[in-house]
Design a protein that fits this description.
The complex is a heterodimer. Helices cover 65% and strands 2% of the residues of chain A. Chain A is built from five helices and two strands; from the N terminus they run βααβααα. Chain A has helices at residues 5-23, 38-63, 82-105, 107-121, 126-147, and strands at residues 2-3, 73-74. A two-stranded antiparallel sheet of chain A has the order 1-2. In chain A, α4 (107-121) packs antiparallel against α5 (126-147). The N and C termini of chain B lie far apart (67 Å). Chain B has helices at residues 2-11, 14-32, 38-49, 54-71, 73-79, 91-99, 103-136, 141-158, 163-178, 195-198, 203-221, 241-247, 249-264, 270-284, 297-312, 314-320, 326-337, 344-349, 351-384, 387-406, 410-427, 433-455, 467-497; strands spanning 180-181, 188-189. Chain B is 74% helix and 1% strand. By secondary structure, chain B is mostly helical. Chain B has one domain (2-465). Classes of the chains: A mainly alpha, B mainly alpha.
Amino acid sequence: MQLNDAVTGLVLVIFALAEIAYSSTFPALHGQAYGPSLFPILIGCGLLACGLMLIARGLRERRSAGAENAPWLRWGDWAQDPAMRINMMLIPGSLIAYILLSDFIGFIPLCIVLLSLLLYRLGSSLGASVLYAVVVTIVLQLLFSRVLLVPLPGGITSALFR
Amino acid sequence: MDSILQAFMLVLDIKVLGVMLASALFGLFVGSIPGLTATMAAALLIPFTFFMEPVPAIAAIVTTVAMAIFAGDIPGALLRIPGTPASAAYCDEAYAMTRKGQAETALGVSLVCSAIGGILGSAVLAMTAPVLAEFAIKFSSFEYFWLACLGLSCAVVVSSGSTLKGFVSLLIGLFIATIGIDVTAGHPRFTFGSVEMMGGISFIPAMIGMFAISEVMRYVAAPGSQQAAPQQPIRNVFKGIGSILSRYKLNVARGGVIGAVVGILPGAGADIAAWIAFAMSKRFSREPEKFGTGHVEGLVDAGTANNAGVAGAWIPALVFGIPGDSITAIVIGVLYMKGMNPGPTVFMNQPELINAVFIVFFLANLALIPLGFLAIRLSRRILYVPRKVLIPIILMFCVVGSFAINNTVFGISVMLVMGVLAYVMESNGFPVAPTILGIVLGTMLESNFMSSMIKADGEFSGFFSRPIAATLGVIVILIWIIPLVRLLVKLVRKPQTA
């Protein structure tokens, strides 16, 4: 995903202004000229200045010959291909699914489903995907839950594995 | 002497040696797979080091990284795809040698030079770090404030690409460091009522996100085809290495020095060391016209430099808690987790731990020769491992790893956000290393500034009242002024030439 520098700059400027406005509500320290707001405000000012410079640079780039109609935003090659678009969305998608569902469903079934899906989408055959997913899930479960004693969520399956 | 003996006892333990062997194999594997970097190997290791004693934890990281940096040369030489960014500088040259039928020599030189470079870097680390620590014990918050500034400035100046974008990247890192309960007043900042945010952005999920998730996304966005390794017999990689090394012994020494020095600079690691060493090699070569045709000289310089840089980066990390590169940024996070807060006091109170780190460095680089040889022999098999299978598995490892640090899914959310951020930043030419330095050094910068201000009663002159602080302050100001002056000169001159 490629953004014109002016777009990045604009995002940074908006973010910086909001951050500075919010930071200035922080309470001051007693008897001190500088409090918890000092660093966030300084960082905000820095981002604001950089954002403005990026806007200037992006606009100048567009004004240079041959770039007048350059897009503000260019999604890479993957966005042209529907299959790859789905794959690309699957990465954050599967992480969000894990964050939302792991407590309820439990690590083992969720990991098998997500891994099979990802393996299959990235080009393994269906059978191989499921096989790899099951093996990897068991290894992960044994390694983290038994050896490293990480309480991986049991979810609805916890009764099965006790 | 006693502490050195103790250090040997700590390292020469069957458990530690076992961990080192396992990490070595892991490092060789990750390093030799294009697209998986040494930093990613270190990031994937942290969840495991979390459950180890300090010495095996450090040993695991040191060994993995030393191996991965060498292993990056293998696909560089055989496929012309660097396995890690540190091998990018001389991958064309190494591949040109393979095309001439000299793959054996290219890999052999890479291996031996990597080991020598690693040992040279380790020697520099073992000799300079304790001396610096003795000096640094006198430092107060004023000096540490300037050191943090110096580290951050270096990160911007030496980062690849545009300085402006490097600066933005740094500011993003500093902003992330401000999230959570503030150090002086205890006021929650940018937490929006979330209790989990109050503890700040947990460092390790952030690292896993920035180095592993972004890499996974980059693969999915552009899978590319997997090349097969050339069918060239690779048997005795050590044939003729002796004469090459004796002919280029000056290059070895130069590469080692460049590597160690570049490694020390915050923000610049093995990859930049390799580029600089390769350029120097060409510049001072007696036969510069041979470069690009499969000439071994540049390989000697740069192959030595990148492994020396790995050790060099540990010097500021151990002595001041300022990371020399992104890998040592991860290391600092691990050290804090282990209660071994980097800084001069660790050298005074736990010298056996510090000596153990040095011993581990020497051991790992010595073990590089036999294990690296094994990796070269197995390289054709390793290069066949399908990445379409590896990538989803890595993703799930990341999920479990960032969950394991605090046992909450909040870690996974942090990993996701930072991963997407790093992916977008890198595809738009914003270097990621300054962000990481910002996250690591942000708290140090602010808390030292605040305590200095309280000590100096709000007087800025306090920052220049001690000789070392004043010197460091002047250096930092110069680093910032010189590029500005250059920019102004350029702006003034431009209208006349146009």
